[in-house]
Amino acid sequence: MNPPSRATIGDVARHAGVSKGTVSLAYSGKRPVSEETRRRIFSAAAELEWTASHRARALATSRTGAIGLVIARDPEVLATDAFFSKFLSGCERVLAEHDMGLMLHAVTTAEAEHLVYERLAAGRADGVILLDVEIDDPRFALVRRLGLPAVVLSAHEPTRGETAGLPTVFSDDSPAVTELVTLMAEAGHTRIAHVAGPAHYIHGRIRQEAFRAAVRERGLDDSMVIEGDFTAASGRDATTQLLDLPEPPTAILYANDMMAIAGLSLARSRGVRVPEDLSLSGYDDSELSAHLSPALTTVGTGAVQRGELAVTTLLAALAGEAPGAVLADHTTVLPRGSIAPPPRP
Amino acid sequence: MNPPSRATIGDVARHAGVSKGTVSLAYSGKRPVSEETRRRIFSAAAELEWTASHRARALATSRTGAIGLVIARDPEVLATDAFFSKFLSGCERVLAEHDMGLMLHAVTTAEAEHLVYERLAAGRADGVILLDVEIDDPRFALVRRLGLPAVVLSAHEPTRGETAGLPTVFSDDSPAVTELVTLMAEAGHTRIAHVAGPAHYIHGRIRQEAFRAAVRERGLDDSMVIEGDFTAASGRDATTQLLDLPEPPTAILYANDMMAIAGLSLARSRGVRVPEDLSLSGYDDSELSAHLSPALTTVGTGAVQRGELAVTTLLAALAGEAPGAVLADHTTVLPRGSIAPPPRP
Q1: Distance from CA of B143 to the nearest CA of A (A)
Q2: C-alpha A307: how far from its chain's center?
Q3: Cβ contacts (< 8 Å) between B291 and chain A: which residues?
Q4: pLDDT value at position A89?
Q5: CA nearest to B118 within chain A
Q6: Phi and psi of A4, rounded to 5°?
Q7: Which of the two residues, B256 and A5, has the higher pLDDT score?
């Protein structure tokens, strides 16, 4: 057997007549390199038997080749979150183009979360995407202290200073919620309820505020709001409470599909027909929502596109740009069979 | 500002009077180091200003501190797979104890998949877990050629040579499927159908074979099998086909919850009551299954425990042990409200 190749990235660069940085770029794809130069570098590498693991090591000296994503949620919720896996596949699509991977950590305590960010900063990731941000999120200060580049995913346009100057990919759920209320109101509903997500999550709070504003604007009662926690169990329980009211709602707008599907099932088990007796809508466009009978009116969140945009924005930040706040404009109401006129009194 | 620290792991080791390996262990936690030794190493590191990124780099020279997981499935399926996220959280639980992360790649083509394994082998992961293995899976030869340690997750005990000598964490879905058929048969059902997963997935095939064997053993018709693809859409369509039969089944055993929930919804929309007219069962114990009305009889797969076991087995393999085939014995039938006696003829 031959001894292992001792060629370095410098040897390859000299042989190809380019800089070491250009050799790196040819392999990483982080910035374009001309086809001619790339070919010259690849043949130099082949001639010198400069192998993949050498290349990888060379790349690793400046960049880890990975971005980090820390999921600080109950794994049980994670398992049913339609948004998460789609977001992940969007991230992956862009990362693959840049020869990068996603370093994923699921944590269940604040201590573990803190430690993971320290580890990521210590050479395991070039940057991170912050999901599920809360008001005054302690991670903003943490990543700044660690010098870890970060992009924030937010459910509304950040006000000045709100995300501590971090680049932010934001969407705005308010127009979709307003549109759902309009669909229900125009079908004739006057008693519309909301099963909300937890208000300490920005997207939970935004949807609830948009709901209240939209029904108030139509002169309707905005008090039928029950706060769930995005789980099916909370959707079922909130629906029970609403249907037990002396004057139950004829339409329910849920803050996600999981709660809506459990609510639909509960209503039917009580002999309440959907949509004849009760109209309802979800949020997230989970795979199941389109294939229920009736199919669930819901909101497509452009989760894949948001993953792509989050990574693109983070890569721009790593390249020294200052992306600021970027609007992810992919939110779409998907009207299906679960909204119909209310029963005649 | 001070110039950056030039201390090496060797300096720290000499200063603390231990080997470089012990310094590594003190930081990685891969094997226990006495509290006294750990303290000595940490103060040496502090004195020499040996910082986190130096430590990370030192660890990275021999180990990447990560294991790889490549998901070669349509992201749409991934988004609704109850097993995946639970499995991930089990992996993460053990990885966190060992100061390790999970390098995750989602790929949608065979070419991309191949490339990702090459990259992982080239310094991005110490080893990989192979999910969704197929018969004669080409990844067995690939990881061997790349010298990439791997653990296979399988839905049955591997026969000699089947997983090419790779350590395997296996479960056996057959007893749970047999138990579900027994529940249905003992409730009085004689026309039992199966909505299967794709037979090219081992777990799809195993469940289907167990179903056919169990109904045949009771002298019942084993021909009512429709192959779905684990998506809600296929569950809905298969259920339509079954209910349109001249003599429809009175019980349907689905190969996963997603197909079962779409089937339940379809049946109800046609006025078929569950469980009065039609009994059904799922597989996976998704969060939604427990909170439908009626709750869905399903199978808990011990996904979290399997994630833990897969990582533990991979770490054992990395440490030079030869784990062989390890049984993950966490599969449990969860009887709920969706199975009842058939309607009287």
Answers
A1: 15
A2: 6
A3: 231-233, 235-236, 262, 265
A4: 78
A5: A52
A6: -60, 150
A7: B256
User: What CA–CA distance (Å, rounded) separates B26 from B44?
Assistant: 12
As for the ipTM of the complex, it is 0.74
Same fold, B9-62 and B66-172+303-331: no
* Nearest-angstrom CA–CA distance, A249 and A245: 8
- In chain A, residues with a C-beta closer than 8 Å to the C-beta of B292 are 232, 261-262, 265
B174-299, CATH topology level? Rossmann fold (3.40.50)
Kindly list the distances between the CA atom of residue B328 and the CA atoms of B25, B154, B170, B175, in Å, as whole numbers in the listed order.
29, 10, 6, 13
CATH number of A9-60: 1.10.260
Span B237-257, pLDDT tens digits: 999 999 999 999 999 999 999
Measured distance CA(A258)–CA(B288) in Å, rounded: 7
Residue A341: its H or E element: none
CA distance A266 to B342: 22
| Minimal CA separation from B65 to chain A, in Å | 8
**DSSP letters for A269-303:** HTT--TTTT-EEE-SS--GGGGGSSSPPBEEE--H
For residue A104, pLDDT beyond 80: yes
**For B66-172+303-331, which CATH class?**
alpha beta
Task: Choose the closest CB to A55 out of B60, B122, B270.
Answer: B122
Strands A168-170, A325-327: parallel, antiparallel or unpaired by DSSP? Answer: parallel
Taking only the tens place, the pLDDT of each residue in A251-286 is 999 999 999 999 999 999 999 999 999 999 999 898
Residue A60: per-residue pLDDT: 42
Interchain pair B258, A105: CB under 8 A: no
Helix (H, G, I), strand (E, B) or coil at A168: strand
Q: Do A288 and B80 touch (CB under 8 A)?
A: yes
d(CA B225, CA B281): 14
Nearest CA in chain B to A269: B293
Per DSSP, the three-state class of B155 is: coil
CA distance A269 to B25: 57
Who's near B205: CB < 8 A, 6+ residues apart? B199
* Distance in angstroms (rounded) separating the CA atoms of residues A268 and B274: 11
Q: How many CB atoms lie within 10 A of CB B112?
A: 16
Question: In this model, does residue B70 exceed pLDDT 60?
Answer: yes
Give the number of residues written for chain B.
345
**What six digits make up the tokens of A95?**
């990362």
A56, A76, A106 member nearest B287 (Cβ): A76
Write out pLDDT tens, residues B86-132: 788 788 878 877 878 889 887 777 887 888 898 888 878 999 999 98
**Closest to A103 (Cα-Cα) out of A139, A65, A132, A74:** A65
Distance CA B12, CA B24 (A): 10
Angle at Cα A17 formed by Cα A11 and Cα A21, nearest 5°?
70
Two tokens at B264? 């339940």
**Could you tell me which residues are beta bridge partners of residue B327?**
B170
Is the model's pLDDT at A36 over the cut of 80? no
Q: What residue of B is the nearest CA neighbor of A147?
A: B53
B58/chain A closest Cα distance in angstroms: 10
Q: What ranges do the domains of chain B cover? A: 9-62, 66-172+303-331, 174-299
pLDDT of residue B304: 86
| More confident call, B112 vs A193 | A193
Query: How many Cα atoms sit within 13 Å of B310 on the Cβ side?
Result: 31
Mean pLDDT confidence for A12-29:
74
Which pLDDT score, from 0 to 100, does residue B55 have? 45
| CATH domain B9-62 topology | 434 Repressor (Amino-terminal Domain) (1.10.260)
Q: A41-55: b or e for each residue (b if 16 or more CB lie within 10 Å)? A: bbebbeebebeeebb
